[in-house]
Amino acid sequence: MDQQSFSALNERDGVNKPNHISTQASNQIKKMRRKIITAEDLVAGILNQDKVALSRAITLVESTNNNHTEKANQVIQACMPYANQSIRIGITGVPGVGKSTFIEAFGSYLTTLGKKVAVLAIDPSSSISGGSILGDKTRMEELVKNPNAYIRPSASGESLGGVARKTRESIILCEACGFDVIIIETVGVGQSETAVHSMVDFFLLLNLAGAGDELQGIKRGIMEMADAIVINKADGDNVKRARIAKLDIQRALHLFPEKKSGWAPTASLCSALEQKGMKELWQMITEFETLTKQNGYFEQHRKQQTTHWMLETINEQLKNNFYDNPTIQAELEKQKNSVNNNEISPFKAAQNLLDLYFKA
Amino acid sequence: MDQQSFSALNERDGVNKPNHISTQASNQIKKMRRKIITAEDLVAGILNQDKVALSRAITLVESTNNNHTEKANQVIQACMPYANQSIRIGITGVPGVGKSTFIEAFGSYLTTLGKKVAVLAIDPSSSISGGSILGDKTRMEELVKNPNAYIRPSASGESLGGVARKTRESIILCEACGFDVIIIETVGVGQSETAVHSMVDFFLLLNLAGAGDELQGIKRGIMEMADAIVINKADGDNVKRARIAKLDIQRALHLFPEKKSGWAPTASLCSALEQKGMKELWQMITEFETLTKQNGYFEQHRKQQTTHWMLETINEQLKNNFYDNPTIQAELEKQKNSVNNNEISPFKAAQNLLDLYFKA
């Protein structure tokens, strides 16, 4: 087999290639294919506020190909000095509460103030429930066309840890690209709220009037994390019920312990449909920013968050390194069986495996 | 200084020892002091259903002295073949719900059936709130005197992880000592319920009538874990309210997803004070045991639990080994500062530390 048979131009194995394909032409094609965009190109594009470069860089960050990691790190590292100049807002709420319509209305309002708005989504469940990403895209059809907005759904089919890490890195890229309001959206199920909470400055819970908290599946812990609870769909016949709900929530909020930020969370009304309540909400977030920047909480909180992500990454990698070790993988099953047959205690089995790992 | 000056018999330094102390006598004393109970002695005592040996073994397991770990492991290892012959019941509920009185009544009832009942407590907060251990001891004054019962409070001042691990090992020792009902008690705050849930077969939530779930601080997640919700203090004027509460809870339980065990959790009434409802509760637990042993869940669940504890222990030790490393400790602060000053991303800092760790 000559070298040519290895060429990608050989489409069918076993079929001889006609001799009249010019070697020069095929080399030319291969050369063009090889011309991939460099880390420097991406960084230059991002700093030049080019959304295409931003999208490419996020795709690089999201890549599970190990060869891309180094390049992704270079891009992030180069963007670091230009990041951190934004307010990061987390938005959660159960499906049906109208998150997409709300973000569309809120994001559009912010662009009229001259803000640049990036929307990132954390939704590890999208690969299972399906459709939500495309759904969001179509539902935010105004915002997606807005030159001062950028919408990026999460990488589907990833674990929460993976998606969260990549979202956190994407925030840095968006900020370097000049976006000064970063909205992180999460569907109101499971653990993703905690992940979002650990990467935003302001955490907003979107609610509906009428349905009780229990029925809405909102966990106490999520209410406790919220800096604001906004009751959406306060329009038409719903206004009265929404006002009652607001009072109920306000009463419930008093029962929670005081926040370290010094901020007292409040309940408010809005109608994403009628684009009402957006101005008041932004004013509230601005007040939060002013207060927490004055009392030092804003910066201190961001520092805690970065430390948290550093430690989380370390802990995850320590585990990966252990469980990916071939010796451990072989022995793990044996030890598991001994434990399952009640031959040894789980603690002794753990010790056996750790001894093996640290000896090697 | 001669060798004698090192003797423990020299009570005051600098004061000469009278010569008439017999060397023979002092050697005799030292020899007796050195006669510490061996692992074999402890195991023999435990298998002989000796509660004093059991207590000593649990103290050994709870010891934070590294020299005791090996001996503790020997004892546990030797007890393993005699363990696992019990039903493990977790009991939780907020303070004031009457857990101690309930356990006293329920435990006493079980001993009248010829059962041997061990009560272990998980309460990492006891060192802070204080008094709860002694409080429990006095409140369970009938049970503590009962020859077929054994009550052991948790080691105070430990982290939850530490207490939980030690409780799990203590279960093995109690089972080898012939106890066939193991009750694990936890105070209804924070994460300890999850730890208890991961070491028991049957998880019981003790409630009160009248107060709403929100007011009782019971998280949805804990209700979801429960195999039974028992409304205590269903006595006197309270009976009617307790009956209504039972119906409410039963309705709420229908909303939860079906359990893997095939068991449908129910609400029931009891009065620990009047010792009512104990027979019915034990009957329910027996039904649970029969069902889950028939459908294979019981054993499968225990296997999952031991695997869980093995992996938890590994993950904890991997972290300890990393963060206790002096090179890492020195570098960690530097990397944290770089991250806090936005010089590098938290992920790059994590990578730097991991590279350093795995190179060494």
TrEMBL record, chains A, B:
Alphabetized InterPro entries for the sequence: GTPase_ArgK (IPR005129), P-loop_NTPase (IPR027417)
Keyword Manganese among UniProt keywords: no
EC numbers: 3.6.5.-
Membrane-spanning ranges: none
Region Disordered: start-end pairs: 1-27
Keywords: Hydrolase
Pfam families: MeaB
Gene Ontology molecular function: hydrolase activity
Keyword Magnesium: no
Protein family per UniProt: Belongs to the SIMIBI class G3E GTPase family. ArgK/MeaB subfamily.
UniProt name for this protein: Methylmalonyl Co-A mutase-associated GTPase MeaB
Phylogenetic placement of the source organism: Bacteria, Pseudomonadati, Bacteroidota, Flavobacteriia, Flavobacteriales
Gene: meaB
